[in-house]
Specification:
Blueprint: E1 2-7, H1 18-31, E2 35-42, H2 46-55, E3 61-66, H3 71-83, H4 88-91, H5 96-109, E4 113-117, E5 132-136, H6 141-151, H7 156-175, E6 181-184, H8 187-196, E7 202-204, E8 223-227, H9 233-253, E9 258-262, H10 268-273, E10 278-282, H11 287-292, E11 296-299, H12 309-316, E12 321-323, H13 325-328, E13 340-341, H14 345-356, H15 359-376, H16 379-403
Parallel strand pairs: 1-2, 1-4, 2-3, 4-5, 5-6, 6-7, 8-9, 8-11, 9-10, 11-12, 12-13
Length: about 400
Amino acid sequence: MKILLLAPFPYGTASGQGGATVCFKALKALAAQHEVHVLCFSTGSENDHAAVIEMGKYAKSVQNVLLRVSKWKVFQAKLRSVFMPTPEHAIYFESGEFENALKQSLHFIAPALAMTQFPQMAQYLALCRGITTVHDVQDAFSVSWYRRAQTAPKGARRWYALKQWRNWVHYECLHYPLATQCWTLSEQDRYGLTAFAPRLSAISMGLPLTDQFAAAKSTSNGKVGFIASFGHPPNLEAMEFLMHHIAPLVYARLPHVEFLIAGREPPQGWVQAAPANIKFIGYVASLQNFYDSCDLIIAPLMSGGGVKIKVAEALCFGKALVTTPVGAEGIPIENGVHCLVEGDPTRFADAVCKLMASAPERDRLATAGVAMASQVFATSAWANRANRQLHRLAECQALGASHD
């Protein structure tokens, strides 16, 4: 089957963002069975250029359109999102150049199926009429923004978050039903989307992460790890939660414990103001080495939709984990069996201290966690589900055409 993937950015092994990691693994899995072509935006950075080259090793073709975001466009986007029912983030991806490139790709490639990835790309589904389409949601932004509105401080920030939530609900109801089918990472996101758009055809597909699951391995380095893409608002909220609440409580009881924060280009204000027990280490080239260097992984997430990739990855790498109820969503985690789940800052800090003081307890959780992850996040299992679903969609399309 010829598949045209529409993505908001190029992705590869060094993308440093959870959604990008999942999409790259999905690309490789799909390319093993189908002829895949990619049309995506790019900022023109060295990282994006490297990702385009890496995608080209698996895709039949990769074409990228420059994403132009000026200060004037940012101002326009914010203003439009206040007075119009359009989400700010979706406006940045409105592009006549991309529309033209898509029309040419549809004409010359003649794909049997077009797949849009991430919410901001759903606005291009209307141009794909006449062929089967799949919208790969990745993150249900209406769910994410609703949570952000709940946790935002009262005043302008909460009002703006509520406005963005309403905009995303309108956007999803307008564009998502144009897809033949929507794929979500979790059952909760599927439910959240269909609650506002009952006619939406949506299924929970899960996600591909790996077919190599690490055995639990004890370390006693006094290190607690957190991986964050700092362009993603829920990670910024999680860092505030860590810096202002969790880290001080842990320091008061275990001053030797250090939090290692991995992620490209952290805000300089945070780096300068970080307490003594927080260290920003920047982008990590090897996830395996990062996880091996930590006794414990945390994911203090307070908002966000879908499956939290950093949580799933920690389980796959055989690491003991402390996360929040939001971080655990979409994963069949049992608190106290696969990891520790706490939403209150004091209890979260207590959980960190408890596990840092007990290597056997860390090993017990890590062993159970990786066993569960191997049943849920295997790339081969996702590929089988995806291929079965694509064949069903193709059969339905062929049946519909025969009745015309």
